[in-house]
Design brief:
Distance between the termini: 19 Å
Order of helices and strands: EHEEHEHEHE
Helix content: 25-40%
Strand content: 15-25%
Shape: globular
Strand order of the largest sheet: 3-2-1-4-5-6
Low-confidence stretches: none
Largest sheet: 6 strands, parallel
Radius of gyration: 15 Å
Length: 187
């Protein structure tokens, strides 16, 4: 078994003080860093990757009157501080960053590409990864879709809730139910 950690969108704009800040975002960054620095004995990751919302011109994804379902306030704009990883996230072990959403909405880390052009599934398979742990922000949006896509792509998938933050309790609970129904382990 080769295991990878997928860190989803732990960026300034999704943490407290950001344009779409989620309560607990900074704590998630710190918890992920602590697990990585400790060489987390429970979750020995052979590889660590991250996704990053990275909008250049996402069209209708940005709105001055967002519905918070399909449209959102501007966030994670190319060249802005909001697109950067949160400073409490230790990026030393991150081997590849998969940017997503340049010109459209993108929720799953599997929609992103790394600078060499590889998609996440291709990158993981090239390293014989068969098991992934998914952490990050937000449980009820990008973490949910990333976990569903990982399972659909054939990876044994676990969402580690102690290293995730959700937008709202109701939508987070629905997301947990949805990923469990898809065969994802929630720990």
């Amino acid at each position: 078994m080769t295991r990878a950690l997928i860190v989803v969108d732990v960026q300034n704009d999704f943490c407290e003080g950001g344009s779409l800040g989620v309560a607990g975002g900074a704590a998630v960054a710190a918890a992920i860093s602590a697990a990585l620095q400790a060489g987390d004995r429970e979750h020995r990751w052979d590889h660590v990757v991250a996704s990053r919302d990275h909008h250049i011109d996402p069209g209708a994804h940005f709105s001055d009157a967002p519905d918070f379902v399909d449209t959102w306030p501007p966030h994670c704009r190319h060249g802005s501080p909001g697109v950067s990883f949160h400073p409490d996230l230790d990026v030393a072990r991150i081997e590849a960053v998969f940017d997503k959403g340049h010109h459209s909405a993108a929720y799953s880390a599997f929609e992103g590409t790394e600078p060499g052009g590889s998609g996440l599934a291709e990158w993981l398979r090239a390293r014989d990864v068969d098991t992934v742990d998914v952490v990050g922000i937000a449980t009820d949006h990008c973490v949910r879709v990333t976990a569903l896509d990982a399972a659909a792509a054939g990876f044994t998938t676990t969402v580690l809730l102690d290293m995730c933050a959700g937008v709202a309790p109701e939508t987070t609970e629905r997301a947990i139910e949805q990923v469990r129904a898809a065969g994802v382990t929630v720990d």
